[in-house]
C-alpha cells in the first residue's frame, strides 16, 4: 500500500471554519471559529502568528487571498465584508457595502481579481467591485433567484459566469457582466452578451442541500455535492447540459476541487478526501480514498452505525464498539472531523494541481501531495 498523501498536518486551533494561502504560500490565513482572522507565517521549522484581523463582530465564514494583488477579502455572519490591504507591517481594512440583512456565508475572488462574489443567507449573491472615483468597494446584487441560503460560489474561467449552490438544492449559473468593469470580448463569446444577473442555467439535480460547486480548469464541466451523499457532474452547462449523478456509500461531501480536467477531489463528513475520475468516455466514478489509513471495510454494521452516531453528536469513538479488531480510531487518519474547506496550492508543468490543503472542524490544516499518485487523470 502506498504511503499517505498527507505531507504536513498542522493543528492551529480547536476548529477552523475556512482558510486561504498567500500568493507565495509562505503565509496562511484562517478563522479559528470566531470573529477573527489569524495570519501565520512559516519560519524555519515552525508556524508563528503574525497578525490577528479583528474587525468582524461574528464568526468569519469565508476568506479568500488574491494571487496578484495580495489582498484578503473576508465575510462574516455579521453581514459585512472587508478587503484587507497590507501597508508595511499592518493589514488595513476597507468596508464593502453589501446591503445584506442576513449572514454572509462565502466569498471568492474572480479569476482576474477585478471582482469578488459573496453568497449570503439573504437568498442573494453580491458581486463586488472597486469604484475608483469614490475609493470604495460597492456591490451589485443578484436577487429573487435563490429560494434559500447560498452555500458556495465558483467563478468560471471567463471571469463573467458564476455558479452557486444553495440549501434549496439547486445549482445555478449567472452572468456577472458589469459595464465599466468587464470588457466585451471581440470574439463571438455569448458570456459577454448576457446582462448582469441573467440566469444562464438552473440545475434541479439535488433533493437536499447542495454544497461545494467548482468548474473544471477549462470551464466545460461543473461539479457540486448534495447533502444526500451524491456528487453531480454537468457538462456543457451553457448549451446542452448533460448531467451525471454519482451516489456515495459513505457520508456526504461538503466541498469539491478539480485537480485536473478529469479528476475531482471531494471532502466532507468522512474526514478523508475522495478521488473521482472520468474515463475517456466522460463517465465519472469513485476511485478511492486519498488517505490510505482509512479503517478496513471488515468493520461490522453495528460499529459503522455507532461511528456515524458518534460523528453526528461530536463524540469520540474510542472504545465505542467491541466489534472491531483494531482500536476504533477516526476514519480519516489525517483529519479527525468533518473537512469543510479545500484549497488548491501548486500546479505542475502539465497544468494539474499537484498540492492542495484541507481544513475542518478538528482545527487542522492538512497539506496533500498528488505528485506520485497514479490515479490522477490528466
UniProtKB/TrEMBL annotation:
The keyword GTP-binding does not apply. Pfam families: WD40. One of its GO terms (molecular function) is actin filament binding. It comes from the Eukaryota. One of its GO terms (cellular component) is Arp2/3 protein complex. Keywords: Actin-binding, Cytoplasm, Cytoskeleton, Repeat, WD repeat. InterPro entries: ARPC1, WD40/YVTN_repeat-like_dom_sf, WD40_repeat_dom_sf, WD40_rpt. Residues 315-325 have a biased composition (Polar residues). It is found in: Cytoplasm, Cytoskeleton. Signal peptide: none annotated. GO terms for biological process: Arp2/3 complex-mediated actin nucleation. Residues 314-333 are annotated as: Disordered. WD repeats lie at residues 53-84, 143-175. SUPFAM superfamilies: WD40 repeat-like. Its main location: cytoplasm. Component of the Arp2/3 complex composed of ARP2, ARP3, ARPC1/p41-ARC, ARPC2/p34-ARC, ARPC3/p21-ARC, ARPC4/p20-ARC and ARPC5/p16-ARC. Belongs to the WD repeat ARPC1 family. Functions as component of the Arp2/3 complex which is involved in regulation of actin polymerization and together with an activating nucleation-promoting factor (NPF) mediates the formation of branched actin networks. This is Actin-related protein 2/3 complex subunit. It comes from Paspalum notatum var. saurae.
Amino acid at each position: 500500500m502506498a504511503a499517505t498523501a498527507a505531507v504536513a498536518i498542522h493543528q492551529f486551533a480547536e476548529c477552523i471554519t475556512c482558510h486561504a494561502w498567500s500568493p507565495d504560500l509562505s503565509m496562511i490565513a484562517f478563522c479559528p471559529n470566531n470573529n477573527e482572522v489569524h495570519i501565520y507565517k512559516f519560519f524555519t521549522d515552525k508556524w508563528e502568528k503574525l497578525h490577528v484581523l479583528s474587525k468582524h463582530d461574528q464568526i468569519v465564514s469565508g476568506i479568500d487571498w488574491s494571487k496578484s494583488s495580495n489582498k484578503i477579502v473576508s465575510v462574516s455572519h455579521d453581514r459585512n465584508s472587508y478587503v484587507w490591504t497590507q501597508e508595511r507591517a499592518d493589514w488595513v481594512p476597507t468596508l464593502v457595502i453589501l446591503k445584506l440583512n442576513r449572514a454572509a456565508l462565502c466569498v471568492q475572488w474572480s479569476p482576474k481579481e477585478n471582482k469578488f462574489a459573496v453568497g449570503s443567507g439573504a437568498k442573494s449573491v453580491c458581486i463586488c467591485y472597486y469604484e475608483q472615483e469614490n475609493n470604495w468597494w460597492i456591490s451589485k446584487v443578484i436577487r429573487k433567484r435563490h429560494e434559500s441560503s447560498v452555500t458556495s460560489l465558483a467563478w468560471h474561467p471567463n471571469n463573467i459566469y458564476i455558479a452557486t449552490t444553495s440549501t434549496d438544492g439547486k445549482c445555478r449559473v449567472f452572468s456577472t457582466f458589469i459595464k465599466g468593469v468587464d470588457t466585451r470580448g471581440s470574439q463571438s463569446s455569448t458570456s459577454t452578451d448576457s446582462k448582469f444577473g441573467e440566469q444562464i442555467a438552473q440545475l434541479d439535480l439535488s433533493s437536499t442541500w447542495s454544497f461545494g460547486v467548482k468548474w473544471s480548469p477549462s470551464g466545460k464541466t461543473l461539479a457540486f455535492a448534495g447533502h444526500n451523499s451524491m456528487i453531480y457532474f454537468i457538462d456543457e452547462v451553457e448549451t446542452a447540459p448533460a448531467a451525471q449523478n454519482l451516489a456515495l456509500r459513505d457520508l456526504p461531501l461538503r466541498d469539491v476541487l478539480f485537480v485536473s480536467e478529469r479528476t475531482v477531489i471531494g471532502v466532507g463528513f468522512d474526514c478523508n478526501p475522495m478521488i473521482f475520475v472520468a474515463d475517456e468516455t466522460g463517465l465519472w466514478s469513485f476511485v478511492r480514498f486519498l488517505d490510505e489509513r482509512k479503517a478496513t471495510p471488515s468493520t461490522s454494521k453495528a460499529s459503522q452505525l455507532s461511528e456515524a452516531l458518534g460523528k453526528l453528536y461530536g463524540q469520540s469513538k474510542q472504545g465505542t464498539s467491541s466489534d472491531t479488531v483494531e482500536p476504533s480510531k477516526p476514519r480519516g487518519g489525517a483529519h479527525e472531523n468533518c473537512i469543510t474547506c479545500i484549497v488548491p496550492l501548486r500546479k505542475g508543468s502539465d497544468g494539474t494541481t499537484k498540492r492542495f490543503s484541507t481544513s475542518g472542524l478538528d482545527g487542522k490544516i492538512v497539506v496533500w501531495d498528488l505528485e506520485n499518485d497514479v490515479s490522477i487523470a490528466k
